[in-house]
């Protein structure tokens, strides 16, 4: 998928051109360096750029991307890398598939209007739905690759620091583990009822502090 993502990016940068100038080259690098390979890794003169084809750049960038990914895999371990690939792929597919379903619903709602433009709605729906599906697949591949190259695993030390910081935040203003004082349940007392304080007087005649504060 990485090669496909890089190839699409390079193809978009070239467009209908057969070669890139300095500005076009820098624009192309903006979406690649720092992700697939370090920044400022590639430097070419104007003459060298005119000799580089779309395929040359794709091969060059992909070779460095492979090295970057291999380094990350060794850092994470192959087992964790495979699990990351699985989780990220499932998450991206879920996100983009839900968006695709919403887009298809919108297409269904408006496709019948194509008849006013002398276009067969059925044919238009088939063509546009296929295009949307292909765009979704391409977007899933690009986003999956982007997340795999940018994902970062926290170290044990970072996790410990976050737990300590969270504990300090929770304890601001007092001990969060201290039992909270339960509010006293108050029952409405009639004026002629005996006062709950036990004085034997009617509530209206009693002056105890507990119930007449």
Automatic annotation (TrEMBL):
UniProt KW keywords: Cytoplasm, Metal-binding, Zinc
Single GO biological process annotation from the record: protein targeting
Annotated signal peptide: none
Cofactor section: Zn(2+)
Span list, region Disordered: 166-200
Any one Pfam family match given in the protein's UniProt record, by short name: SEC-C
Domain called SecA Wing/Scaffold: residue spans: 41-151
InterPro entries the UniProt entry points to: SEC_C_motif, SecA, SecA_Wing/Scaffold, SecA_Wing/Scaffold_sf
Molecular function GO terms recorded: ATP binding; metal ion binding
GO cellular component terms listed in the entry, alphabetical order: cell envelope Sec protein transport complex; cytosol; plasma membrane
Protein name as it appears in the record: Protein translocase subunit SecA
Top-level taxonomy: unclassified sequences, metagenomes, ecological metagenomes
């Amino acid at each position: 998928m990485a090669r496909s993502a890089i190839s699409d990016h390079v193809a978009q940068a070239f467009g209908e051109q057969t070669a890139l100038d300095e500005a076009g080259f820098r624009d192309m690098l903006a979406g690649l360096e720092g992700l697939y390979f370090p920044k400022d890794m590639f430097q070419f003169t104007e003459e060298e750029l005119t000799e580089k084809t779309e395929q040359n750049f794709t091969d060059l960038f992909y070779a460095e991307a492979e090295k970057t990914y291999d380094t990350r895999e060794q850092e994470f371990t192959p087992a964790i890398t495979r699990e990351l690939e699985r989780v990220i792929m499932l998450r991206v597919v879920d996100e983009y598939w839900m968006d695709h379903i919403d887009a298809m619903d919108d297409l269904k709602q408006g496709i019948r209007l194509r008849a006013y433009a002398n276009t067969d709605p059925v044919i238009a729906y088939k063509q546009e739905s296929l295009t949307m599906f292909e765009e979704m697949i391409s977007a899933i591949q690009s986003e999956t690759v982007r997340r795999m190259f940018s994902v970062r695993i926290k170290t044990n030390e970072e996790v410990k620091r976050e737990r300590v910081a969270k504990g300090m935040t929770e304890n601001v203003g007092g001990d969060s583990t201290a039992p909270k004082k339960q509010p006293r349940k108050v029952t409405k007392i009639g004026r002629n009822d005996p006062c709950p304080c036990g004085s034997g007087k009617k509530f209206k005649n009693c002056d105890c502090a507990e119930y007449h504060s």
